[in-house]
Write a structure and sequence with these properties.
This protein has 6 helices and 6 strands; from the N terminus they run βαβαβββααβαα. With 145 residues, the protein is an alpha+beta fold. It has a single domain, classed as ph1033 like domains (ph1033 like fold, Roll). Strands 2-5-4-3-1-6 form a 6-stranded mixed β-sheet. A hairpin with a 5-residue loop joins β3 and β4. The radius of gyration is 14 Å and the shape is globular. The structure holds a DNA duplex (12 and 12 nucleotides).
DNA sequence: GCCAACGTTGGC
DNA sequence: GCCAACGTTGGC
């Protein structure tokens, strides 16, 4: 399993919006960047990801699961762009802020720090664990879900 | 609201 | 195929 990070402006689509969708989840559409698209193409059903609020909050607030692999966007007439579907899994009990990520030397290689503009990013296994620890996420609970 | 960083577009 | 111009993102 690989892990990822999804960015969204809470004004446009927030963590609570995704929670409200329940098991139906939501298509992660609107991505217009090849790197981000390629990351989505590499995702498998069951992969987990962080949900990050950009602009407002600037913190990791939840954990999502990929529930459908990359598929063409229905609305996209060019046929170039794709999206995966994700559902909310658990909230991060104490959200991990961008400041906290930057302040942690173990996370200095994170894409979030070095390429803040990429909206869908891979997260390394050790980074994943570290942030879960910081946020108070119970990893055992996650596995069983 | 500003601006730096980045990606894309289009003229040559 | 290069690169200047432009648009967008996102931190501050």
């Amino acid at each position: 399993m690989q892990t990822w990070l999804f960015k969204s402006e809470p004004d446009v689509f927030s963590w609570s919006d995704l929670v409200a969708r329940g098991a139906k989840g939501e298509a992660w559409d609107g991505v217009r960047n090849y790197q981000a698209r390629n990351n989505m193409r590499a995702m498998k059903v069951g992969d987990l990801g962080f949900f990050y609020h950009s602009n407002e909050g600037k913190e990791i607030v939840g954990i999502v699961r990929v529930i459908a692999p990359a598929h063409p966007e229905a609305k996209d007439e060019t046929g170039k762009w794709e999206c995966v579907d994700v559902e909310a899994v658990v909230p991060v009990p104490s959200p991990v802020s961008l400041d906290a990520v930057k302040a942690n030397p173990k996370l200095s290689d994170m894409v979030l720090v070095n390429n803040s503009r990429l909206s869908v990013q891979p997260v390394a296994a050790d980074e994943w664990k570290e942030i879960c620890k910081m946020g108070g996420v119970d990893l055992k609970k996650l596995k069983g879900s």
